[in-house]
Specification:
The protein has 662 residues and is α+β, with helices and mostly antiparallel strands. It contains 25 helices and 24 strands. Helices cover 37% and strands 21% of the residues.
Length: 662
């Protein structure tokens, strides 16, 4: 075995061990930074030796090349859906039917959380993950193996080495991550997802698994599919079996033998479920013993031995006083319900998105209606529909506007979305400038929403390039902008000229180009000019760039107004070269060097880290013999001791600054 192969095997085994400890045992063994360091080392090794990249390598979590389409595959065991009820009396009737059919048998029921996710089936053969399918029509599902591989919570290899172990479950979007996703989409002027399930489903439908890997999907498994070489008698045994195999099983379940115990368990689950990482909409009640399940059998669409009891979401009725129309960064018009404030699930709700005009038409919602609202997925407010019996006849239909509410331009339909085609629309301008100046893009200090709104209203900024022409006098004349504050903003604008190329690419707001894609594009092409002249074929060679993104980039650079924007940014002195080229040229003292930061630094640690990376260096989370420098601030701790023990050179902030300048 070669040295590289041996090292790769060691890294892969170590990463798998860390994955198991983190995801299956909830006991992380190292910091996130240390995990990332090991993972990057694995990726670097596979880049140098492509033959080491095997299908079961941890690196395959990041996804592969885009698929032309999903392949339909027959389920070896049909994936049936469940009958459901909202009624306790119907649940009791379900128990009565089973008791009657299985007279004389002692019955037990397992109660599990009903996860509001996307049903999938995952297949392991001799411990190796081989295939993942959607439910589809129950008989056939789409092969989403590549996308499921990106889910870190799903092991690619398990401890159980049975010939076939097929497990059914749900892919879900974690609640906290879902809230963050929608905030990002709203800030970017993109339509928000209605609930976590839609976000998970939309992600799994992506043909490019690299895009899927960027979203933090997770999974819970609970049901059996095809089994060969597996012996199991009850659902409780099954859940224990899959957990012991290293698979993510439900974190909490209940057992009941009587109707009273069953109802108590459902109530207990209701009290617990908001603590779970995933959205739940009910409880799954199922017979524990598999031999009794087999005796009952299924109907044509659902098993007779299980039922879903769905919790009624907390709802409220209020008045739809008006509908306003928001203009996003890309010109999409989103209708927003302006509601009479009402308390719902602990918060006061006065606005709710109506998503699009097809939704309004389907639900027949009108101005002046009494409407029922709920927290969709118990996270964001949603308008369920109108209370028809409360109508007086004074309600008015909600018609799509013919002209943009911000610029009076005639609107155009783009599929189900209504869009303002005017690139100079002030609302779009405001969103574009906000996007350009945000921390994740050009990071212009002090350039908040209120200031951008004033700049656009005062006709001082029509696009991002205008920011570089602002003067102290202009800014000082704005509301709540003293001379010192104005100077701070100008300093922030000046500092942004030195930002790395990827920040500029992301800040330009090219449709479908996120921060990750921008980094990949900057590192691949090196200059904005090279990116501007790239063909679709050349763009498709870039990691994280698929056909849709490539077409969008080429289209953006063909527009005269965008080329004019770039010309003015260049004239203003904005950097258009990737600072990461230092890695290739060795043009700085930091290039190729590994740093560890410790103690309290005089400037934000992220800024120091960004400076090192931009100059071609690396930042590690722990000190080793491979560390070149440790930068120590005040109150440095064990990392400083490690550096001294290993003989690693320690720099003060002043010494680091001098090294970075050279």
């Amino acid at each position: 075995m070669s040295q590289a192969s041996k090292k790769h095997k060691e890294l892969a085994e170590e990463i798998r061990k860390l994955d198991r400890a983190y995801h299956e045992e909830a006991q992380p063994l190292v910091s996130d930074q240390e995990y990332d360091r090991l993972y990057r080392e694995l990726l670097d090794l596979e880049q140098e030796h492509p033959e080491l990249q095997t299908p079961d390598s941890p690196s395959q979590r990041v996804g592969g090349a885009p698929l032309p389409h999903f392949t339909s595959v027959a389920h070896t065991v049909p994936m049936q859906s469940l009958d459901n009820t909202y009624s306790a009396s119907e649940l009791e009737a379900f128990v009565d039917r089973i008791q009657k059919a299985l007279a004389g048998e002692k019955l037990g029921f397992v109660i599990e959380p009903k996860i509001d996710g996307v049903a999938v089936s995952v297949r392991y053969e001799k411990g190796k993950f081989t295939q993942g399918l959607t439910r589809g029509d129950g008989q056939h599902g789409d092969d989403i193996t590549a996308n499921l591989r990106t889910i870190r919570h799903l092991p690619l290899e398990i401890k159980n080495k049975a010939a076939v172990l097929e497990v059914r479950g749900e892919v879900y979007y974690p609640s906290a991550a879902f809230e963050k996703l929608n905030r990002q989409r709203e800030a970017a002027g993109e339509p928000v997802f209605a609930n976590p399930r839609n976000a998970a489903a939309g992600t799994l439908k992506q043909l490019n698994s690299r895009l899927v890997a960027k979203r933090p999907l997770s999974i819970v498994l609970y049901g059996p599919g095809e089994l060969k070489g597996v012996t199991c008698a009850t659902q409780q045994e099954w859940l224990e079996l899959i957990a012991q195999a290293g698979l993510p099983a439900p974190e909490k379940t209940w057992f009941a033998e009587t109707k009273a115990e069953l109802l108590a368990a459902i109530e207990a689950l209701d009290a617990e479920r908001r603590k779970f990482a995933y959205a739940t909409d009910g409880a799954v009640v199922q017979l524990n013993e598999w031999r009794l399940r087999k005796a009952l059998g299924p109907t044509s669409k659902a098993p007779r031995w299980a039922i879903a009891y769905k919790y009624s979401a907390e709802k409220a009725v209020t008045t739809l006083e008006d509908v306003t129309f928001q203009v996003g960064r890309t010109g999409v018009i989103t209708p927003v319900a302006e509601l009479k404030p009402v308390l719902l699930a602990g918060t006061t709700v006065s606005r709710a998105t109506l998503h699009n005009f097809e939704e309004i038409k389907r639900k027949d919602i009108r101005r002046g209606d009494h409407v029922t609202i709920e927290k969709a997925g118990e996270i964001i407010p949603a308008v369920l529909g109108a209370v028809l019996e409360a109508r007086t006849g004074a309600e008015k239909a909600i018609e799509p506007p013919e002209k943009c509410p911000a610029c009076d331009t005639a609107l155009v339909w783009d599929g189900i979305f209504l869009r303002c085609p005017n690139a100079s629309c002030p609302a779009q301008t405001q969103r574009r400038i906000q996007h350009f100046a945000q921390r994740g893009a050009m990071d212009i200090d002090g350039m908040g929403e209120s200031l951008v709104e004033q700049l656009v209203d005062a006709n001082l900024a029509k696009d991002p390039a205008d920011l570089y022409d602002l003067t102290l006098e202009q800014l000082s004349g704005l509301e709540r902008m003293a001379e010192k504050s104005a100077q701070n903003v100008l300093d922030g604008i000046e500092a942004s000229k030195k930002a790395d190329l990827w920040r500029l690419i992301f800040g330009l707001g090219i449709l479908h180009v996120g921060a990750g894609s921008a980094r990949a594009l900057a590192n691949h092409f090196g200059t904005l000019e090279a990116l501007e002249n790239a063909t679709e074929e050349e763009l498709l060679k870039v990691r994280d760039v698929g056909e849709v993104v490539a077409k969008s980039i080429v289209h953006w650079f063909r527009k005269p107004e965008n080329l004019d924007l770039l010309r003015r940014l260049l004239k203003a002195g904005v950097n258009t070269k990737a600072l990461q080229t230092a890695v290739r040229t060795g043009g700085t003292n930091l290039a190729g060097k590994t740093f560890v930061l410790t103690g309290t630094l005089s400037e934000p640690r992220e800024d120091v880290k960004e400076r090192i990376i931009a100059a071609g260096g690396k930042v590690a989370s722990s000190v080793s013999k491979k560390t070149d420098y440790v930068v120590a601030g005040e109150n440095a701790g064990s990392k400083l001791e490690d550096a001294m023990r290993l003989g690693v050179r320690v720099l003060s902030e002043k010494e680091f600054a001098k090294l970075a300048e050279n």
